[in-house]
Specification:
The chain has 194 residues and is of the alpha+beta class. It is built from six helices and five strands, in the order H-E-H-H-E-E-H-E-E-H-H.
Amino acid sequence: MRHRVAGRRLSRTKEHRLAMRRNMVASLIQHETISTTIEKAKEVKPFAEKLITLAKKGTLQNRRRAIALLGNRNMVDIEEGEEVGKGTVIGKLFSELGPRYLDRPGGYTRIVRLSLRRLGDNGQLVLLQFIGADEKPSKKKTRRSAKKGSKKKVEKADVQEAAEIEEPVEADMTEEPDESAETQDSEDQDNQKQ
């Protein structure tokens, strides 16, 4: 029985799973998007989100904890046939990704299913990626979930939004109409009556 057993085995030993998870999250931090199978992505996503939460706080203790969990490998790019160092994974995590998600309470990654399948075993491929900085968390409030005291605030906000929408329409109506068009319309109506 598997009562209260969390996680997937993924046909690997414990050490192999741990190394794979570290490598995948390090690649995700470096490239900000990776392609993998759906099972691996679902297994790696919570670990990546926990590291982002550590990076948001940004203390020395959290930095040391992230190094212990992830390791601190160097990021290297190849430019003009030569290897160029781009810093470390932990450095990018704490300097770029942590500050990017300060206003976001969670949900830093997403899984996007691809229509492609892996050639060897026909496994379902997905993209595991960080949500962009420009995307805001959606706050869907219904009137049922709003408290009685905040209902008036919601109604006032709706009235203000409606007033903002109607203002441009009123501005268009205040423009002076073309007099020549009115005179032609009235002449056409007189001709039809006769």
